Amino acid sequence: MGVENIVVRKLPGLKKLLRMAHIKQTPEQYVKRALRLAFYAAFALTATAFFATAKMMPPQKVVAIMLTVMACSFVLVLFFLVNAPKGIIRKRQREIDKDVLFAGRYMLMKIESGSPIISTLVDASKGYGIAAKYFKEIVDQINAGVPVEDALEEARNYTSSEKFKRVLWQLVTTLKTGTDVTGPLKATLAAIANEQVIEIKEYGKKLNSLMLFYMVMACVAPSLGLTMFLIIGSFINLQISGSVMYGLLFLLAILQGFFLLMIKAARPMVEL
Known about the structure:
Blueprint: H1 3-10, H2 14-20, H3 27-53, H4 59-112, H5 117-124, H6 129-143, H7 148-158, H8 162-177, H9 182-235, H10 242-266
């Protein structure tokens, strides 16, 4: 039994995560690739640390540092790669949530005009961003002989978007019961649209607090702190080198970028 098999046994949910992230690899293949990349990254970082410390420290300390860097970097990179599908799933969820309302309305329009469900799915698979990939998978399964209800049910199980799950659930339910899909689908889309309006309003309230926090912590406080630092330094004849100033400006830029990312991450992915 290889190392990748041991790791996979410790990660029973990895297969579903890979499926939801649209990573077309088996858990064993993915973990094997992650182990290889983690080893390469650890080797590169260890070599860099060796050249940086070889002439500055005794051989015993250099060896200890090399082993520490290799072990820590290997574990950290492997942890990042193993958990990377979760980040992809979260990103896809936001993208699907942005597309789902338009895709659902398009399907509703096609169905109301008399188009069969399969034809509607085929047309939906040719557009609407990330959602189109899910529709394409459904169509591919149907063409391979899988019943429409089963194909829709499997897509519902593996999508990361709760809104998209609700749309698919309405399609599956109406197909199984033989009722008209337009009414339930229209109600579901209306509920999703209302939820998105609420999300936008909540974001507007949250944005006021975030912007105030951003102005204080990323603009006012660093500016006052730097000014006081320069004034006090001039009184006590503290020599401030250019490298220190560049370092402070670099930290300030990182802080501002961090707050901007926070604001962007809080924005709901909606298209009404």
